[in-house]
Amino acid sequence: MSITVTTELLGRLQPLMSLRSEGLHELLPRCSTHPFPRESDPFRAADWSGQVVYLVGGQLLASLPDATTRVLVAGQDLAAAPLARSGKVPRKSKAITDVVLLTLEEDTLDIVLTWNQLAVPASSAPAGGEPTDWRMMSGMFALDNLTVGAFASLPPANIQSLLGKFKRVNVKRGETILEQGAPGDYYYLIESGRCKVSRLVAGSSMELAELKAGNAFGEEALVADTVRNATVVMKTDGVLLRLSKNDFNELLRAPLLQKVSGEEAERKVAAGATWIDVRFAAEYRNDGFPGAINIPLDDIRQASTALDPSREYIVYCQTGRRSSAAAFLLSQRGFNALLLDGGMRAHTGVMESPA
Fold this sequence. Notes:
Elements: H1 7-10, H2 21-27, E1 32-36, H3 42-45, E2 51-57, E3 59-63, E4 69-73, E5 92-95, E6 99-105, H4 106-118, H5 143-147, H6 156-165, E7 167-171, E8 176-178, E9 186-192, E10 195-201, E11 204-211, E12 216-217, H7 219-224, E13 231-234, E14 238-244, H8 245-256, E15 258-260, H9 262-270, E16 274-277, H10 281-287, E17 293-294, H11 300-303, E18 312-316, H12 321-331, E19 336-340
């Protein structure tokens, strides 16, 4: 038996039926189907820990955790609820026909549901405007943003506050959003449209990247408390979500930026963590920590694709300013990146001398 997973199918399952079609479409690649033959017990044939499991094909006799025994038929109301969730699985089951189970990671589903419930517009509009249904913001609510990106580590208590602080800004093709050398004032998330990032090098403008819906920019100057190191210009008309520096620091920077002391960093490196030195190559060659990887801050976005997401990284520079920006950039890309608090200058008596 073969089942094609569609948004219509997901929309008949609990609690996925509460999501909009855009959210269901985002979940499609995260779903897996598992066929089992007649007479088998699917819940003894595989490990379902960490998964939400649904019956989407065939008929199944199941002894449920509530001590009831039921015949479940895919597509009917009783089968809309998860068969397994939060570690609770049927004590025993038997496939009356060939069956197909659908699985989805429970953490992924929980993150999406949390944001979805908190994103519903307030019953009353803010002064001078309409209430915002944040579920319509495909850039902010792209699944990668919620499960891996900047919002993945955000405490749920911060979500409602964050949504209330973002301002939606319409922008035009050719409009300059950030200018190299200007002070950092806002963090941006692209809701729609595309923009180019360029930097003035030796008097010539060099294009560094093109950003699209779901991408964020402007965080480096805010985290490092310095000026903009690049210029961002819209390539198309679009919509940006803008967050002030103070709100960014309170609601996003603080939860994402995890600091460690020199002593703790040494213990972690001894246990398998890896140093990342984000200074220029000449600085790194002069006094970089033994075994460190040198990725200058300017290169951290592009070079992060070569890092191992399963490893722990400790990021450092001379004072902690450049490394704080780098650690934030890595963290919002889903890496386990810790910041050496105070940088090398604060811990020269703790670290080992270079070999």
